[in-house]
Write a structure and sequence with these properties.
Jelly Rolls; 2 domains; 368 residues; mainly beta; seven-stranded antiparallel β-sheet
């Protein structure tokens, strides 16, 4: 519809639900060669919602390539044009729905008029939707620009929130000139044992890590900036209930030197089960020991973060360093050829690997 007096929207989609027992919605999906292909990363869906008549609610949903809902919200329509196009639309409700794309493929958007905030159907629920746009906000799990504090992250340093933007000291993104498992990573520290210090993603407004119900593996690498600190990784839901955690030791450090490689980084993986479709967050905290005790001047760099669906018990699932794909057994070597740096499947460094499955150069290898 076109609204001649303009306002919040000059054109809008009219959508209705005539009967509570029958569906009524509009979708943008793979139809007539109009697709919505998305890649990995964070996205935000914006639109304005007004009422054609009455005061309907609107459910907004995002579906992934498997046709599962990964993000949704229900809002009350603001403003009403009382069934006429010769009106100025004012007071409409603005929707900003953030979500995380975990799989490449064609996505779908659905807009459904409903009767209440619980999403119940109703008779003659009529709404207007306009200014629909979707934009990519990058991948908050990938660290790119050196000497930057990423805006997608909440970072505490000695109990103080670190401001996003360019930084020349304190927590920030580091780039290692000789590459390794962490070509770039986020430097964090615990400088005072009596104060909180951590880095957390998924809690900044507009950067929600939306996951559908299921089992997941969260993996990463970490290396000491100095010394051999430990790092605790935690996964929590919207109510801050911890769904999974792990503490690993950074068995190597870079000696406060960026002109080196990070092939000595330790590998960590947290397996967890998301019991509903919603928003989750991940936190990394420098700690002094395997029990998670606090300490002073614990400095480390972590990164190469990957999240994938999989069995919550599958600790052998490893993310390939170069292409981010899930790998199976990549190679088999004789015991006499054991060399370089090895880790067990819990991310602990092993100096003399015996027979079994280990992580070597970021890949899963059988030692015979």
């Amino acid at each position: 519809m076109q609204f001649y007096q303009g306002g919040d929207m000059s054109t809008a989609f009219y959508v209705r639900q005539q009967s509570a027992s029958k569906a009524g919605y509009i979708e943008y999906r793979d139809k007539n060669n109009y697709t919505l292909p998305l890649v990995y990363g964070e996205y935000q869906l914006n639109c304005n919602v007004a009422a054609w008549k009455g005061s309907p609610y609107l459910k907004v949903e995002v579906f992934d390539p498997s046709n599962a809902v990964i993000a949704s919200t229900i809002v009350k329509s603001g403003g009403c044009v009382n069934g006429t196009r010769n009106a100025t639309i004012t007071g409409s409700t603005q929707v900003a729905l953030s979500f995380y794309s975990l799989a490449k493929g064609n996505y779908k958007l659905r807009f459904t008029p409903v009767a209440d905030a619980q999403g119940n159907g109703g008779n003659w629920q009529e709404a207007l939707i306009g200014n629909v746009w979707l934009y990519q906000k990058g991948n908050p799990l990938a660290f790119k620009n050196a000497n930057m504090v990423p805006e997608e992250w909440n970072i505490l340093d000695a109990g103080q929130k670190v401001s996003a933007g360019t930084a020349v000291s304190g927590p920030r993104i580091f780039k290692f000139n000789q590459g390794g498992y962490l070509p770039t990573g986020l430097y964090i520290r615990q400088s005072d044992a009596s104060k909180n210090a951590y880095a957390e993603v998924g809690t900044v407004n507009g950067y929600g890590l939306s996951l559908k119900k299921g089992s997941y593996n969260l993996s990463y690498y970490a290396i000491g900036w100095a010394g051999n600190p430990y790092v605790k990784c935690e996964v929590s839901d919207e109510s801050n209930r911890c769904l999974g955690s792990q503490i690993i030791q950074c068995t190597n450090n870079v000696g406060k030197n960026l002109n080196t490689n990070t092939y000595g980084a330790s590998y960590g993986v947290v397996n967890f089960y998301a019991n509903h479709t919603g928003y989750y967050h991940f936190r990394w905290t420098p700690v002094a020991d395997g029990n998670g005790n606090s300490g002073s001047w614990l400095e480390l760099v972590f990164g190469h973060i990957k999240i994938q669906q999989g069995s919550a018990n599958a600790k052998s699932m490893v993310i390939g360093v170069n292409d981010g794909t899930t790998t199976g057994i990549d190679n088999a070597v004789d015991g006499k050829k054991k060399q370089d740096i090895w880790y067990n499947l819990q991310g602990q460094r092993v100096s003399q690997p015996a027979h079994g499955i280990y992580i070597h150069n970021g890949k899963k290898v059988v030692v015979r």
